[in-house]
Design goal:
The chain has about 200 residues and is α+β, with helices and mostly antiparallel strands. It has a five-stranded antiparallel β-sheet with strand order 2-3-1-4-5. The chain is elongated.
Length: about 200
């Protein structure tokens, strides 16, 4: 019986492909795929709408979204300011005044700023709070349309007294303006000093 090792090369030479030519090791025994040039009946439905819109310039918002002068005449000034804040789309910044009359260290104020930044980030609002002084924190944000959410958050915090955006100041309902609070604290301080001085004279 012939040795299998000597017969194997002969068998290999006898192998031929389907088209009658010798077997090609480059093809790896796979048949070729033929794609026709007639692709009229082929439908490419793999692209979704977001893929079609990718790279196109965004269209400006429709004029229906714009405030009309007739709308403004029926609104109070505070309503107009609130509407403008809600429509802001670029970066925004402002200041938060902390409650006055509370002794805080720089570390305490820094901790408040860091806490607010982290909490808002978990809610999807990208805002950064930075310490200015012991009673003021500055904030910056990339997306101005989140300002109303930030304003609600800040006024829910017990440490905050007032939030300022541009020349607009927002406080909790019923809270007096910051200037009145400062004046009241000064008067109380004067009264304490006068009471202390009169007790020393006795």
């Amino acid at each position: 019986m012939p040795n299998l090792i000597t017969v194997f090369p002969l068998l290999l030479l006898l192998v031929v492909s389907r088209n009658g030519g010798p077997f090609s090791f480059v093809e790896g025994g796979k048949g070729r795929i033929h794609i026709t040039d007639d692709l009229d009946d082929i439908v490419d439905d793999e692209e979704d709408e977001s893929w079609r819109q990718w790279g196109k310039k965004s269209t400006p918002s429709s004029s229906d979204d714009d405030l009309k002068p007739s709308d403004l005449s029926n609104m109070a000034m505070s309503e107009i300011q609130a509407e403008l804040i809600n429509r802001q789309s670029g970066p925004a910044f402002g200041f938060v005044k902390l409650r006055l009359g509370v002794n805080r260290s720089q570390d305490m104020v820094s901790e408040i700023a860091m806490k607010w930044t982290k909490v808002l980030k978990t809610g999807g609002v990208e805002a950064k709070f930075m310490i200015v002084d012991l009673s003021t924190i500055m904030f910056t944000m990339e997306r101005g349309q989140d300002v109303s959410e930030l304003k609600e958050f800040v006024l829910d915090q017990e440490e905050a007294y007032e939030i300022k955006l541009g020349d607009q100041a927002f406080r909790r309902p019923g809270d007096p303006p910051l200037e009145e609070v400062v004046e009241k604290l000064r008067e109380e301080e004067k009264k304490k000093m006068m009471d202390g001085g009169s007790k020393e004279e006795l």
